[in-house]
Here is the input.
Amino acid sequence: MSETVQDKVDFLVIANRLPVDRKIDDDGNVSWKSSPGGLVTALEPVMQRKGGAWIGWHGAPDEVVEPFHHDGYDIHPVPLSAQEVEEYYEGFSNATLWPLYHDCIVEPVFHREWWDAFQKVNKRFAEQAARQASEGATVWVQDYQLNLVPKYLRQMRPDLRIGFFLHIPFPPIELYSRLPWREELVEGLLGADLVGFQTPGAAANFQRLAKRRPGVTAARGRAHTPDGRTVVIRDFPISIDSRGFHELATSEKVKAEAIKLREDLGNPGTIIFGVDRLDYTKGLRQRIRAVGELFKEGKLDPHEVVFLQLATPSRERVEEYKILRDDINLLVGQINSKVGTIANRALVYRNESVPREVLAAMYQVADLMLVTPVRDGMNLVAKEYIACRSNDDSALVLSEFAGAARELKQAYMVNPYDIDGMKATIMKALTDSPKLKARKMRAMRRQVFDKTIDVWADSFLTELEGH
Ligand code: ADP
Ligand code: G6P
Here is the structure.
């Protein structure tokens, strides 16, 4: 494979994020950091295997970065001005579409200037892809931030095969209809040959909307457009590099890290673990409240049990994320001031992102994993936990509102809004017989090792290339 950046490629991924973010500290020093979130975790191994190019934003405003070669594929950074970061990324993507697509857990904000910026930036991504794609190339557009790219790109380059995958939920029509630009966004996706979703329900929601467009007929996962094209609409539940995670978690380095971690936590009998981006969709308020109450009521003994929660700061300038950060800090403080001792904190809360080896060590030491989003497209953390565990005596508590619940059926299911129900399920997961837990873990392990990220990418691309 070539080590220099190619002029044109046959396979392109376009996502708002690149796999690495450019960071500049106060002294002007520049470094590259892994980007947060499930999209990058899932797509990195796909690109390492397939090669081609990844087009995306490098995470810093007002900066033009030259293309470079990375891990077997080319990277083409797309610049965003500070105002575009505010209006396209923080605004329309993350204060309009993100809450709207997550069942309006918080109120979506609608601003016409944000919509203008969204169109402008989507055009820029499409133009970049049109420049980089060779004749007849396959272009795979990712996620809600680039909703309009399929349509723009088809106008520029009708020769391309265009796929789109939505990593987050797609809401029911009743909620979606609030959007002042709902027609344009549906048209945007209908520019693709294949539109993929995490669940059949999400695909069905989109099909219902597509059918409402003038001149479009849609049934059984196919929409026929007035310009004579067929758009396939289907679910493709995303996954992880299960073997890669497993090998990492069972490596000597990570095992040593796990021993050290357990010691640092005071060698407790039981470790409960949660790891998320600090996002209001993740059900952190409910989860921390439930565990906090179990400590306060004496059902969990802080001398025996530690709850380790990592929450990576995310979208820090968006109002609802600031509110969430303050709420969680307060809640954690309240719990730790009432339970545990100076030496034994019941709740260890860290606002940080950790390297993958450290995360794997955390999965290794976690006897109980809490994944309790109030809405989530898939949730890869749940799958990572299963892949990293070699010990059967563990348990996964999983929200029924995560896409992963459709596949990890043997998890201890919870409705995160039902705090008492969640408390009871946590206690059950801690006290069930090792035999029952082992059976559940084995079944989930089969699922996670059968349906890997390669299976996901191959099934999407086979469908797209056979179009
Ligand atoms: P989302 O995409 O909404 O963030 P997912 O659970 O699908 O949710 O994916 C999150 C990804 O980010 C996972 O790969 C997870 O390991 C990673 N991640 C989340 N929090 C952290 C953290 N504090 N440190 C390191 N990685 C993290
Ligand atoms: C989710 C979204 C991704 C996004 C990630 C991190 O996984 O589906 O598109 O990249 O969160 O969010 P951020 O806003 O930091 O890119």
Summary: The chain has two domains: 9-238+454-466, 242-451. The pocket of 6-O-phosphono-alpha-D-glucopyranose (ligand 2) is lined by residues 17, 36-39, 143, 167-168, 314-315 (CB under 6 Å). The radius of gyration is 22 Å. Residues 112-132 form the longest helix (21 residues).
